[in-house]
Predict the structure of Cytochrome P450.
Amino acid sequence: MSFLGTPTIFLHGQAANKFIYTCDGTVLANQQPSSIRRLCGERNIMELSGSEHKRVRGSLVSFLKPEVLKQYVGKMDEEIRKHFEVHWHGKEKVLVGNAIDEDSYLQHYELSDIWNRAKCKKKHTRRALPTTGEGCPFKQEEIAKSKASGELLTWDDLARMKYTWRAAMECLRMTPPAFCSFRKVIWAACMTHMDDCIFPNPSEFDPKHFDKQASVPPYNFLAFGGGPRICPGYEFARLETLITIHYLVNRFTWKLCHPNISFSRDPLPTLKDGLEIEIEPKIPAKVN
């Protein structure tokens, strides 16, 4: 097949994913289509392999590892609070995609979509998935009540948000931010993400798909890649996602202005006209 003007072999399935992610880089090295190489340059990290890739990746990982990121939880908290105070409070409607792009720290609409999917789950099951209140599997309200006014979230607070992260992973399973990767061959994450032998009822949003991490076979959930080239920013993304969701659900109630909105890929998931929502603040802007 031809893809982006380049002859391409397409592989899919767990065995193919494992082969692609574990084989020696000299055997199946990264190779972007020529059109992408011209845009990003011959020396971008996606083109590197072997010792060069290890050196550059090692530099990135040195400041993205958990023991380093622990020091920045408070700063991330402050930036996300500021974003909501500046771009959300005092407004009746928000165009989520545009508002987030203005601060450039969140790139995809999925983080708000997580909660819309959760609240809309009643279309598929007898009970809606609660996001606050007694019996709620999410810990956002419980954590917020344990904090003094203005007190920042901590690493330990984020560690308690296990169910929230499962919901985030479920959204990434259904709508992976990267639809494929190039290594002289091309693979697509959706082929295993939507396999009902791996994730029962794959078209339904259900965080229980990730209740037991061990039940998801290796090289099947690929939102962050896998093997030696797994995304070095994985932990950073997890922290940013959890903090954003925490303040989103504790400070606002909302509903979609256009319930039938859809998205396309460009190549990332993109909402043509943004995600417009009606919002109502739960608490004053500067209260935790």
Q: What stands out?
A: Residues 2-281 form a domain with the Cytochrome p450 fold (CATH 1.10.630.10). The chain has one domain: 2-281. The chain has twelve helices and ten strands. The beta strands are 2-3, 6-7, 9-11, 93-95, 180-182, 185-188, 252-256, 264-265, 269-270, 276-281.
